[in-house]
Design a protein that fits this description.
The protein is built from six helices and 13 strands. It is an alpha/beta fold and 246 residues long. Strand 4 and strand 5 (63-68) form a beta hairpin. Helix 2 (92-103) runs parallel beside helix 3 (122-142), helix 2 (92-103) packs parallel to helix 6 (227-241) and helix 4 (157-166) packs parallel to helix 5 (204-212).
């Protein structure tokens, strides 16, 4: 099994190559993972910088002393994949974020579509966004990523249209699409933006705005997926076709 990943804010050592992992991450390493001397770990800032290390000692319940190796930086992926995810009901949003993180999505944009039952407003919206970001962080660690996905602020339809206009390839999953996403011509580099609508679907007015911005409607398959799973399935398809999974 690959080494567990822990998130750090810096890579400063004591001069002898030893790093102290404490706080919540240290507690998780010592009390939950029960790591001991000689075991391997990976430390990352979640933004691409990371280093392998070997546990030197566990101290108390929340301190892990690690002999840290060289800090390196993983470049951003190309093409970059952004998924615009309409807000699902309940905890389905966290499910979508978790699985999209696991497959390798780079940016997740919450979208307040007109047919969303859930709408993020005020304090409730702030808490929901924080949950999405925490989910991306934990799923990034679990899937051994060192560059976690960015979870952007909730976007309006016009803001989503701007993202699509700037992308080299923009796609909207919609039943009106005559071409399957599996056969679309994809860029080798630059940005891909994929829009996933709510359970009620993307409205005709929203689709018209997105098409005006340069996006096209595509079908994913014969069956209709829930909004919380469609983005992950489509992302896996796109990442496989662009070579990022090869």
């Amino acid at each position: 099994m690959t080494a567990p990943v822990f998130v750090v804010s810096h890579f400063d050592t004591d001069g002898g190559g030893r790093y102290v992992l404490d706080g919540p991450e240290g507690r998780h390493a010592v009390s939950v993972k029960r790591l001991r001397a000689g075991e391997e770990v990976v430390l990352t800032d979640g933004a691409g910088r990371w280093a392998e290390g070997e546990v030197d000692a566990a101290e108390g319940k929340d301190r892990l002393v690690v002999r840290l190796g060289e800090v390196t930086e993983e470049p951003g992926e190309s093409p970059r994949l952004t998924v615009v995810q309409a807000l699902p009901k309940g905890d389905r949003g966290e499910v979508a974020v978790e699985t999209m993180t696991e497959v390798g999505v780079d940016v997740i944009v919450p979208w307040s579509a007109s047919r969303c039952v859930t709408q993020w407003k005020g304090e409730r919206g702030a808490k929901s966004l924080a949950k999405w970001r925490a989910t991306a962080r934990e799923a990034g660690k679990q899937s051994r990523r060192v560059r976690f996905p960015e979870v952007a602020d909730a976007a309006t339809t016009r803001q989503v249209a701007s993202l699509l206009a700037e992308a080299e390839f923009g796609a909207v999953l919609h039943e009106s699409g005559t071409e399957p996403l599996a056969t679309a011509e994809l860029p080798v580099r630059s940005d891909i933006v994929l829009v996933v609508g709510p359970e009620g679907g993307v409205s005709p007015e929203e689709l018209a705005v997105f098409e005006e911005a340069g996006a096209r409607a595509f079908r994913l398959g014969r069956s209709v997926l829930r909004t919380s799973t469609a983005g992950t399935a489509a992302a896996a398809l796109l990442l496989g076709r662009t070579g990022r999974w090869s």
